[in-house]
Write a structure and sequence with these properties.
Helix content is about 45%, strand content about 5%. By secondary structure, the protein is mainly α. It has two domains: about 60 residues, no CATH class; about 55 residues, no CATH class. It has a three-stranded antiparallel beta sheet. The longest helix has 17 residues. The model has no long low-confidence stretch (mean pLDDT about 80).
């Protein structure tokens, strides 16, 4: 069996809304519906898992040619916790120490750029951002 994708993952691949994915794939053979049925007092709740092969087959049928989908890397997910700030500080400190960075200005700029990414740039585009040369050019006499 091929990899199971969420509605959100298929929507990202096809560049359509999640509602469109649910409409297109809810009745397709091979799609797993983990949701609940509709009752008189409660509307239906859809939770679909869509095999990669089903999505590729759907695209092949639409385009008339074989389609192979390359999925983006999954982001590492961590549970939210009260100590996430401490963990983030320790991770930054560890990276700075491993690279011999003691320059306060460089560490502040790294934190500012992390904030910029978190607030304004979609996570799937983070890998395209590379400020390392810019940060290294501003270092002072081997401090980083």
């Amino acid at each position: 069996m091929s990899e199971l994708l969420t509605v959100a993952a298929v929507a990202a691949v096809l560049k359509v809304s999640e509602d469109t994915v649910v409409r297109r794939f809810s009745r397709v053979k091979g799609v797993i519906d983990l949701g609940t049925g509709e009752t008189r007092n409660k509307r239906r709740y859809r939770v679909l898992r869509i095999p990669l092969s089903v999505v590729e087959g759907h695209l092949a049928k639409l385009s008339g040619t074989t389609v192979k989908i390359e999925l983006p890397d999954k982001a590492e997910r961590r549970r939210r916790s009260a100590s996430w700030v401490n963990r983030a500080i320790l991770n930054l400190a560890k990276a700075a120490k491993q690279n011999g960075c003691t320059d306060k200005r460089t560490l502040v700029r790294m934190a500012e750029r992390a904030r910029l990414l978190a607030v304004h740039v979609p996570e799937q585009d983070w890998k395209e951002c590379d400020w390392s040369d810019d940060l290294l050019d501003d270092r002072e006499d081997g401090e980083c």
